[in-house]
Amino acid sequence: MTPRSVAVVGGTTVRFGVRAATWSELAQEIGAALFRAVPELRSEEVDSLFVGAAEPERFAFQSHVAPLAAEQMGLRPTRILQRTELACASGQSAIRSAYAAIAAGLSDVAVAVGIEKMNLPSMAEANSAMGCVLDRLWDGPHGATAPPFFAMVAQRHMLEYGTTEEQLAAVSEKNHRFANTNPHAQFYEKTFPRDKLLRLPLVAPPLRLGDCSSMTDGAAAVVLAAEESVRRFTSTPAWIRGSGQYSDFHNLANAGSLTDWVGLKHAAREALSRAKIGVQDLDLAEIHDCFTISELVEYEALGLCPEGAGGKFAADGRGEVGGDLVVNPRGGLLGCGHPLGATGIAQAVEVYQQFAHSVPAARQAPDPEWALVHNLSGSANVHSVMIYQAGGPR
Amino acid sequence: MSDRPRTRRSSAEMAAPPPPIPAPAQQPEATRPRPVEKRPFLLDFFPLEGEKETRLSRFYQRLREGRLSTTRCPRDGAIHWPPRTACPKCHTEELEWIDLPEEGRIFAFSAVLGGAPLGMEEEVPFAVGLVDLTGVPLRLFGRIEGRPWNALRIGEKVRVEPYDVGDGRVFYRFRAPG
User: Fold this and answer.
1) Could you tell me where the DSSP H helices lie in A116-185?
2) ipTM of predicted complex
3) What are the distances in angstroms from CA A247 to CA A58, A93, A136, A251, A288?
4) Residue among B10, B45, B160 with most chain A CBs within 10 A, to mutate
5) Residue A392 — very low, low, confident or very high, per pLDDT cuts 50/70/90?
6) pLDDT confidence of B8, banded at 50, 70, 90?
7) Packing angle between helix A165-179 and helix A292-301, nearest 10 degrees?
């Protein structure tokens, strides 16, 4: 059987930030927003629902969230109803699962939604939740969470390649500037010039506050449809052309060199070769800037620049509008915040809107045809990549 | 690039492998220390260490005796971290235990200056790092005590230090010379 072609035919996000809303209220809010954003969508035709949610047990004391999300969003799927969990990549996992189901003919119209409520009365409990993404038995007792791990990546990158704090700040400044074009971003209307970024307090040296994405409440959703019904929803679909994932370790002891992200190279190679394109064909990339150093290492592992040259790539503005390709135009995780389950879906929403030329000019990639979406999860031990092609009138 | 750190060192590069440790005598049930939980179990990162709770209780028992140990596959000699109950390559469940070297050198480090998990807030600031153990192809993550984080250096020697968690349980950390 030849797999069917699948496209994202619409989507939206709620406002990201510290929200006066419960997990269920975020689900209701994204449900209402989705039906407004995709007015052609009828609830009864959504046969499947995939819910990206990383840690609702920890952050909201709630399991079995797929039926809860369906109830809150007003959906009654009859074919596939499931939650996807891959920590920071839970949202992309929901899209990948919907894509697989539609391609295989098991679903015709699916919704992939990501919801995360991360701000708790106790920040220490929230930090514990982030800690148990890592190897809880062996790394957890040392107090391991994401910031010190990515800080060690930055330390090694600085040692091996001479990468500077100023180059890290260039990533943060770019993504926060883009976030100022996105009213749903956590740091909308907040400016972070480079000299200010370099004076913010250290969180995990050498990383400062502005180098780290934040704890964020948020939700995002997309509609996916099979080739037969795509045009009923939109004239500007975002076709899924490739997908790849790779994991080569979990315990921090097995993280290798820290600066050579082998898993991303494998995942990107798989996704790009399925799409039959090269990295130079990309017009747009939504990549996982959980920390500034992540975006730098990703430039290198994706092959956008030589190994060790990520800092220069950032400082030279090659990820800006008018550069080699536009990187993280919606504002990235740094500017939008990082509600774990929602992030991967919000990135796909940006790709859809970029292809539809419906984003503000300050972040619009010029006539984009190809886009890459990347999420890492955990200690960059899993990499997930998808490739989209614009299918609208060109 | 020849000067880049290798992702993994082969076991052929390590020094002569340490001999396996004989299995310890079973401790009588009544004298085995029982963990006292200070926090709800699901908010406590320190593991349950007893024979009734884990098949790796020997690791914690040996740690209580002052030595960090781990498992090794008797077929290909590969040293695991963390210690395992089944080999990830050949899947034998008949693994042997070895003691690990008591010192190593810092490969990378950082510090937690805020945002510590529950129960560790009062320990902030604390240093953590990846340490290449001397003579074995293992790079372990752990706390580094003994010096403020900004006085540590990549490449310097640290010692493995077992310590009492405070409620009968034991764990390990590294200590930089003061």
Assistant:
1) 123-131, 146-161, 165-179
2) 0.96
3) 24, 14, 18, 12, 16
4) B45
5) low
6) very low
7) 100
Q: What is the pTM of this model?
A: 0.93
Q: How many residues does chain B have?
A: 178
Residue A64 within any structural domain of the chain: yes
Q: Which residue of A has its CA nearest to B111?
A: A204
Mean pLDDT over B126-145 rounds to: 98
Check A157, A184, A288, A338 and give the catalytic one. Answer: A338
Q: Residues A88, A212, A305, A336: which is the catalytic one?
A: A88
How many interface pairs between A and B have CB atoms less than 8 angstroms apart?
A: 127
In angstroms, the CA B77 to CA A342 distance is: 44
Q: Which residue of A has its CA nearest to B109?
A: A152
Range A237-243 average pLDDT: 98
- Across the range A320-341, mean pLDDT stands at 98
A146 in a domain, yes or no? no
A88 is catalytic: yes
Q: What is the pLDDT of residue A322?
A: 96
Within a domain: A383: no
In a domain, A18, yes or no: yes
Confidence of residue A292 (pLDDT cuts 50, 70, 90): very high
Domain containing A117: what range? 6-121+216-233
| Beta-carbon separation of A135 and B45 below 8 A | no
Q: Is the pLDDT of residue B5 over 90?
A: no
Q: How many domains does chain A have?
A: 1
- For residue range A206-215, list pLDDT tens digits in order: 999 999 999 9
Contacts of B75 (CB under 8 A, 6+ apart): B87, B90, B92
Closest Cβ opposite residue A202 in set B4, B113, B143: B113
Q: Kindly identify which residue of chain B lies nearest to residue A206, measuring between CA atoms.
A: B110
3-state class (DSSP) for residue A123: helix
Q: What is the CATH number of the domain that holds A99?
A: 3.40.47.10
